[in-house]
User: Fold these one by one.
Assistant:
Number 1:
Amino acid sequence: MRLVISTCSAQYVGKLSAHLPEATRLLLVKADGSVSIHADDRAYKPLNWMSPPCSLNESKNESGEVLWTVTNKAGEQLIITLHEVHNDVSHELGVDPGLIKDGVESHLQELLAQHIDTFGPDWTLVRREFPTAIGPVDILCRDNKGATVAIEIKRRGDIDGVEQLTRYLELLNRDPLLKPVRGIFAAQEIKPQAKTLAQDRGIECLVIDYDALRGIADPSLRLF
Amino acid sequence: MRLVISTCSAQYVGKLSAHLPEATRLLLVKADGSVSIHADDRAYKPLNWMSPPCSLNESKNESGEVLWTVTNKAGEQLIITLHEVHNDVSHELGVDPGLIKDGVESHLQELLAQHIDTFGPDWTLVRREFPTAIGPVDILCRDNKGATVAIEIKRRGDIDGVEQLTRYLELLNRDPLLKPVRGIFAAQEIKPQAKTLAQDRGIECLVIDYDALRGIADPSLRLF
DNA sequence: TGATATATCTCGAGT
DNA sequence: ACTCGAGGTATATCA
């Protein structure tokens, strides 16, 4: 990893054209070949960058300034002019073991499929990722009266999710073996707009407590 | 901007829970308060981070190791244990003038409005950003037979764009002065899903060659 | 490889 | 403050 603090300007030509006026910034060159230009704001996002695989060529322009030309296979280019270099250090970091995550949509779906009685007593799972022509329904199940229920699961429930479930329901209700199929929209948090739209379409909303569900699934995973 | 090279481990508890085993990494602290943990790969994306506004508290644990506790208003926490610090430098960068872009959706819209005959000979523009109760329609025009056409423009055409156009068409067709109004979905790239949905709803799809269009609009801008 | 859904999306504009 | 849309989205999964 190479860290360069430099007063620079830059030009990107690729998926779009973009230009960066002269200012002092951090140039970050990683071992994977990526180059990114960071200002002192915008959180972790660089002003401009080139993703790997790409190659960095260092040269000088007619004014004697250092020129970095970063090119990828698609011919996209990031050209950086280093007007002045204030610092230039390199460090060997080695391979990183990476991040271990917990608490994403697939976990929610798994947990809810395993504990289908979250929705009501005596409910039964038909299958997870039930296939349809326009994509898989997260969970298809039957309620205690044997009626078919399609469940769409999101971490954050917004209007898109309701639209998606609506499309599935329309399709599923064309199948005489399944119909009538009703819908449940389940999420850790449901936006008011989404709730309104769902109600308007006769779709039930369910807010899920992920921690509680995880606690039921495996008490050893409780945080407290 | 503060750059620290350190052998560290970290824990994030917030929108999800995540853990980072011990390894040597770059810790990047920006003037906006953000903290990010970079490995020597994964392009510009950090392994873990905290977005501003947040506050960084530096302390020591019982083993005498440096502990960074980064907290935001929502109570999300990123806790970094610095087992060993290899380098620690700070630089004042000042405010950045930012990136100037070209080739985004608004340009496409401008170009297509100027060259409405891209859609057919003798078409006429009614107006760009035609206002409706649920938002502006990108382009409203009339075809060579005087029939009203609503055009939705995207750089990448996915299912959301078709939904959006569908809502506009429903609304516009309630206006006796305009109806019948048909729709065209125009994008540089149209996803198969979106194409299928559009066809199902009687919406025409049109793939646009941005460079060609720009070439027509201003030959001096041609790349070749 | 291509298509699809997710993301601690991020970021900016508009209300 | 919040919502909505766009992104050089990037990234992972699955066919």
Number 2:
Amino acid sequence: MADDYQSPRPIYMQIVDKIMLQVARNELKPGQKLPSVREMAIESGVNPNTVQRTYGELERMQIVETKRGQGTFITKNKEIVEEMRKKLQFEVVDQFISKMKELGMTEAEMIDQLHYYMKEREGE
Amino acid sequence: MADDYQSPRPIYMQIVDKIMLQVARNELKPGQKLPSVREMAIESGVNPNTVQRTYGELERMQIVETKRGQGTFITKNKEIVEEMRKKLQFEVVDQFISKMKELGMTEAEMIDQLHYYMKEREGE
Amino acid sequence: MADDYQSPRPIYMQIVDKIMLQVARNELKPGQKLPSVREMAIESGVNPNTVQRTYGELERMQIVETKRGQGTFITKNKEIVEEMRKKLQFEVVDQFISKMKELGMTEAEMIDQLHYYMKEREGE
Amino acid sequence: MADDYQSPRPIYMQIVDKIMLQVARNELKPGQKLPSVREMAIESGVNPNTVQRTYGELERMQIVETKRGQGTFITKNKEIVEEMRKKLQFEVVDQFISKMKELGMTEAEMIDQLHYYMKEREGE
DNA sequence: GTGGTCTAGACCACA
DNA sequence: GTGGTCTAGACCACG
């Protein structure tokens, strides 16, 4: 459903990405309950194993907490959420700068390119 | 050598990336001969099969031409090289914009972030 | 099995040809699962690597899609299948016309030859 | 020059093809002298080894005779030339019929296709 | 179970 | 010497 079997990115990580994004945008709020593994599997048209792995990964990152017998919840720890948000941003910007530098571009050129392609996207 | 065995990106694609970058920066010039499969294998510390795959991939992209018994050469077709260069740039910028938008940022904020992290990197 | 080790055409391409033909003749239908790499390897009496290459090639041609952990499937995109069918036909006819013209033959003569050799083959 | 380093067909066979065609069309006449290996190599922009192999192949087919110290000549044996001409034709037609049959086409359909693509080529 | 990558080592035709 | 193909066998992440 929201997953791409072709992409080189593993499906379970695609779902991780999606959830992290929803958290970062506050669409999923601290303390909110996530769908059960089975529900999410059906929703996403994916094997329950895959969702299990997604939740495991999110738990490792402390973005999510599993309460036995109750389900899986977004952490209430706002520091962690904030940290994650910053890390997401940082990674995007950092990767952009690194790659543009590899291509031999200066900061001014990066901004030029940015303007140029933003215009091309207008109306989206 | 220049490859990372941990990266999820396959080694043969890492070498593809490296060569494409060298072409984009004109460090590898149109018509120039690449090291033979065996030489490159030793240089890169990988199996010749892996390099073979790299060269095959580059040939599919028309960045490289192979002449039987003579070796593998950067294409002399400058249009293809230019197109590739643009595509590389576009992908980087496009991905940046998409991800930043997903994070809910405006163009002004993107440029802010860019400035901010560029300063942090000063001296590199 | 269905491959010819003497032919100048690589084995993996012979298998590609065979599958494309089966698709063109609708013996392999859109969405249908192909044998796993290992199964096909045994069926065809070749190394799994060789089949892997075959499937990779077919995927590049978009005739086949691979879903992680599930297997390899004929594309459901009927346009691509139809396009492939036409391309196969075109290539055969085009090559025939080109070569016959090189031999200095007119259209009438081509048809004559066609009739003549078709009769010779009767009963096949 | 007249050779294609990209084609899967070996260069020496591409030259063989070219010469056979010239003989079939009587552009090269029985008894006529071919250029020396060195001349032909320069003409064709190819390694002399490659031309050597070409002449060897043509000699094996008895289309050409080498007279020591004099050079290489098209055979005067018109039967062989005629046989070759027929064989060339046969192979083209035979391959066409085989492949069209593999695609599941009847004789009528073959002729249809032939007409169709001949029209498309008009003006060439 | 699936496909994907990699190594090691071999053989081949071609230039 | 060059690239191209193939086998055998291994390991991996993924579903």
